Amino acid sequence: MAFLRSVLHMGWMLVTVVPVALVLLLAAALRLNGHRLYRIAVFWLGLAVHGARYILGISYQIKGQANLPPLDQPCILLVKHQSTYETFLMPVIMPKDLAYVFKRELLYVPFFGWAIGQLDMVHIDRQQKSQSFQKVVQQGKALLRKGIWVIMFPEGTRIARGQAGHYKSGGARLAIEAGVPVIPIAVNSAVCWPRKAFVKHPGVVTVSIGPAIASDGRHADALMADVSQWIEAEMRQLDPTAYASPSTDA
User: Fold this and answer.
1) Residue 4 maps to a domain
2) Whole-prediction pTM value?
3) If phi over 0 gives left and psi between -120 and 50 gives alpha, with beta otherwise, what is residue 162?
4) Nearest-angstrom CA–CA distance, 58 and 54
């Protein structure tokens, strides 16, 4: 049954992404502003998330929403990365427009990539690390000035359930350059939607938003150490079974 539900949900995403992407591309050609283009994209992400609820039986809950800063305050969200689910979910649940920092290869994915290429996002070439970081700083600061929150996955890739990746300092460095706080966020999405797995399982994903961490006067490595310490400690609260035994990633 889980396999059949996963097939149906994949079909749902494929069927819905094409018309929404075409609408977004048309809207971009008509020069609609960035916020309106973003809302079209979030509409499709909402279809994917709600489809997960009704087809896969995957719902979500949010802890610590009061830790988000006021809407007029810029910030950088640094999020635990276990699956594709949180990449869909975060724009749906956040009260501000978000700008992802992502690898440029995603731009070549038919329809989905073409659509996100029209949005205020930061796409980087991982092969050119120094140039990529300068691009992140330049574009990230410009987006923050426009009132858009920047979102990054500091581990860089999806990490198996019960494990911690290497927390790269790029998000902390951007926060220090821009003079904005970081918001650590823990997500136990692999409980339902395992990394690299086609078959998903019913359950509840918890998004836990931590207190803002100021970047003023901080060193990037020390700031990221605080972020990783909070996230990994919180992950053990959200998914204690995974940390009591070897990884259950599938």
Assistant:
1) no
2) 0.93
3) left
4) 8
